[in-house]
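>> Question from a student workshop board

For tomorrow's exercise we were told to take the sequence and the ligand below, predict the bound structure, and bring the output to class. My setup keeps failing. Could a helper post the expected result so I can at least see what it should look like? The ligand is FE2/S2 (inorganic) cluster.
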Amino acid sequence: MSHVVLRLASGERCEIAAPPGQTLMQAAKSGGVPGVEADCGGSMVCGTCHVIVDEAWFARLPPPCEMEQMILEGVPEPHPRARLSCQLRMEPSLAGLAASVPATQR
Ligand code: FES
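>> Workshop helper replied:
Here is what the output should look like for this input. Compare the format with yours to find the bug.
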């Protein structure tokens, strides 16, 4: 079972199971990580699932599509390493991925 680490704005560190095939958003929701709201359920329209991926992992992710980029430009505090967690599908090579949950999603 792969695990990922999500750090909260409060400083709390959440290590959660992230089975291959699930999205990071699904893993965060299953793991009870606060701050990953995911209002649209993964339909890539709300932006409330975004996370800031650690630099060491960011370049290892597949690039975002145009729609994801557009949504990320509209989040409250756009960040160059922000990604929609609903668009990051877990696979064994992403075991150990680390990211931060922003203080606010809207
Ligand atoms: Fe809505 Fe990811 S859950 S964009």
